[in-house]
Amino acid sequence: MDPALVTLALEGPAAYRDRYELVFRHRAERPNVTWQADHTELDILITGASGTPTGPG
């Protein structure tokens, strides 16, 4: 038998996930428990009233 299926049957889904899943998946117990932020800087170009592009600020 496949060792992964034996682990699932005998030790349960948590042991199977810990041993055989390639990606860690976190399941939140309720909404807004986990937040993720992206700190990527964006290139922002602002067009002035004359239609010429200017920088922010």
Map the helices and strands.
Blueprint: H1 3-11, H2 13-20, E1 46-47, E2 53-54
Antiparallel strand pairs: 1-2
Can you describe this structure?
- By secondary structure, the chain is mainly alpha-helical.
- Strand 1 and strand 2 form a beta hairpin.
- The termini are far apart.
- It has two helices and two strands, in the order H-H-E-E.
- The longest helix is centred in the N-terminal third of the chain and has 9 residues, at about 5-10.
- The radius of gyration is 24 Å and the shape is rod-shaped.
- Helix 1 (about 5-10) packs antiparallel against helix 2 (about 15-20).
- The chain has helices at about 5-10, 15-20, and strands at about 45, 55.
Quick structural gist:
The protein has helices at residues 3-11, 13-20; strands at residues 46-47, 53-54.
| Spatial arrangement of strands, main beta sheet | 1-2
Strand content: 5-15%
Q: Return the average pLDDT rounded to an integer.
A: 85
Over all CA atoms, what is the radius of gyration?
24 Å
- In DSSP terms (H or I, runs of 4 or more residues), the helix count works out at 2
